[in-house]
């Protein structure tokens, strides 16, 4: 009988880290999680083995990783603050811990690594010439991971489109399209008419990570794959899914308004988030679509939740709708 595998999750109280931890636990893994207030975290999620520590302290990460088969590196500074100071030192600590334990590092990847030269269809080996400060840090993270794989570390990068989900953190869905905790009366669309956009439902991303990890030694030392997720072919399908779900749950059909891109430059000196959003505008002005052929070759069909089901769970999790008993989602919706 195979011994239970162990994963250390950094960022288990966040969106993708939390989903990864829950999916690993459901798949039979022992999940260790590092947190600066382990007692508080354990009270909220008792199924994980919480360890007191800080991802910025190398000794804490190395100690927590002992005996781990995988380290999910899903820890990020909140609200885009102090990225340049914190992100790379935290990754370096994870690399040191992985080299000491033999664990495979799992990094949730983003499209921010790619500049306009790689669009509209970047593949796993496309050049990374980012156009934003956050993208430059993300590209440097992957460069360091690639270098570490040449020194014996094992790395898995799962890249997906813009995240959404019932427990997601900072993302376009919850920061632009709808207002968490507010009645769903309006949907704001950042997309340009006719321009496609790629989305990723967080539980599907987490399920994909688990299935890849279970492939074990079949993965290359440096394995990088792209997810297909949900492709919004004309920039309106996500908005229309939100509107369908609102009606299916007994609400009025929300109005649609255009995202005020023009206002962001005026507010960027005062709101760091707006500066970051404005830098990412190029990803909404032309289609960005990743192919998942490499992923499918490894695990078969990609985990994929029907769009309206994913949107309903997301809106309920954000407090934007109240799910009625017996109410469902539309029987047919585009994916």
From TrEMBL:
GO molecular function: aldehyde dehydrogenase (NAD+) activity
Domain NAD-dependent epimerase/dehydratase: 7-218
GO cellular component, one term: cytoplasm
Coiled-coil features, chain-numbered ranges: none
Family annotation (PANTHER family): NAD(P)-BINDING DOMAIN-CONTAINING PROTEIN-RELATED (PTHR48079:SF6), PROTEIN YEEZ (PTHR48079)
The protein, known as: NAD(P)H-binding protein
Provenance organism: Tahibacter soli
């Amino acid at each position: 009988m195979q011994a239970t595998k162990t994963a250390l999750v950094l960022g288990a109280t966040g969106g993708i880290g939390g989903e990864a931890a829950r999916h690993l636990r459901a798949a039979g893994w022992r999940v260790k999680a590092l947190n600066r207030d382990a007692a508080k975290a354990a009270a909220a999620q008792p199924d994980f083995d919480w360890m007191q520590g800080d991802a910025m302290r190398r000794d804490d990460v190395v100690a927590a990783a002992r005996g781990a088969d995988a380290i999910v590196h899903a820890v990020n500074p909140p609200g885009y603050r102090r990225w340049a100071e914190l992100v790379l030192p935290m990754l370096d600590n994870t690399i040191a811990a992985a080299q000491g334990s033999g664990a495979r590092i799992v990094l949730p990847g983003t499209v921010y690594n790619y500049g306009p030269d790689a669009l509209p269809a970047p593949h796993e080996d496309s050049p990374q010439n980012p156009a934003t400060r956050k993208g430059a840090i993300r590209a440097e993270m992957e460069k360091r991971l690639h270098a570490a794989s040449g020194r014996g570390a094992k790395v898995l990068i799962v890249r997906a489109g813009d995240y959404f989900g019932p427990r997601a953190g900072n993302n376009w869905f919850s920061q632009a399209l709808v207002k968490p905790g507010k009645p769903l009366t309006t949907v704001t669309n950042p997309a340009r008419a006719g321009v496609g956009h790629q989305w990723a439902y967080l539980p599907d991303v987490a399920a994909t990570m688990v299935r890849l990890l279970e492939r074990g030694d079949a993965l290359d030392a440096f394995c990088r794959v792209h997810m297909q997720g949900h492709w919004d072919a004309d920039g309106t399908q996500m908005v229309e899914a939100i509107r369908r779900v609102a009606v299916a749950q007994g609400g009025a059909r929300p109005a649609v308004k255009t995202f005020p891109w023009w206002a962001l430059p005026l507010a960027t000196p005062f709101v760091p988030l707006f500066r970051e959003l404005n830098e990412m505008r190029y990803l909404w002005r032309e289609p960005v679509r990743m192919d998942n052929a490499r992923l499918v070759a490894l695990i078969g069909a990609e985990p994929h939740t029907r769009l309206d089901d994913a949107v309903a769970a997301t809106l309920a999790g954000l407090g934007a709708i109240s799910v009625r008993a017996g109410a469902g989602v539309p029987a047919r919706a585009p994916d």
